[in-house]
């Protein structure tokens, strides 16, 4: 029997200038409520420094120069993101959901702590890849989104736009949960 309060699953994707927070900038955040994908958040951020890995910018198609001019200051972006999370979660517990969640969560966690003082998700995240591996019994190599999509047939696709990817991840998560509920009866 569970005694915890209701949870709001929030699918989050980020695009970055490199592999680790602090050394490289988070460039964009996309988020949606898994149960209500019309509830979305998207923001592009000013870089915190000029460091980048060329491949990271090639994947996202983002420009540090453009973001320096047009992006939202990180502190303002994270306060806006926090306000959105508070609004959509209400009295429930917000749960960070990501595809390769450790990567995205590490940037979100760093930015929340650096620019607002705390992370509303705490120190945890729900990883769709690990959930799929546990449910399907596949190998870690078979947790790529393309392999999962072959099995569960989502309508959406990822394209390295943070909001689009958050919406795609939310669909994957819903489809995986639906499959789980058919395989594992409620206790």
TrEMBL record:
UniProt xrefs under SUPFAM superfamilies: Ribonuclease H-like (SSF53098)
Keywords: Exonuclease, Hydrolase, Nuclease
UniProt superkingdom: Bacteria
Record-linked CDD domains: DEDDh
Protein's GO biological process: DNA metabolic process
InterPro entries reported for this sequence: Ribonucl_H, RNaseH-like_sf, RNaseH_sf
GO molecular function, one term: 3'-5' exonuclease activity
Entry-linked PANTHER family: DNA POLYMERASE III SUBUNIT EPSILON, PROTEIN NEN2
Name used for this protein in its record: 3'-5' exonuclease
Taxonomic source organism: Sandaracinobacter neustonicus
């Amino acid at each position: 029997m569970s005694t915890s309060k209701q949870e709001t699953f929030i699918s989050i994707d980020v695009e970055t200038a490199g592999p680790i927070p602090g050394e490289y900038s988070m460039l964009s955040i996309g988020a949606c409520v898994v149960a209500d994908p019309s509830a979305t958040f998207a923001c592009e951020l000013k870089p915190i420094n000029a460091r980048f890995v060329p491949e990271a910018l090639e994947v996202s198609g983002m420009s540090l120069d453009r973001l320096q001019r047009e992006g939202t200051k990180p502190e303002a972006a994270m306060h806006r993101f926090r306000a959105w999370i508070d609004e959509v979660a209400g009295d429930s517990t917000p749960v960070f959901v990501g595809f390769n969640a450790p990567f995205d969560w590490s940037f979100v966690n760093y930015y929340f702590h650096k620019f607002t003082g705390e992370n509303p998700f705490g120190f945890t995240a729900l990883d769709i890849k690990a959930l799929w591996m546990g449910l399907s019994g596949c190998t870690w190599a078979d947790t790529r989104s393309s392999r999962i999509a072959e099995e569960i047939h989502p309508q959406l696709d990822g394209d390295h736009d943070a909001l689009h990817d958050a919406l795609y991840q939310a669909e994957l998560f819903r489809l995986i949960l639906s499959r789980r509920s058919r395989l594992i009866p409620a206790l």
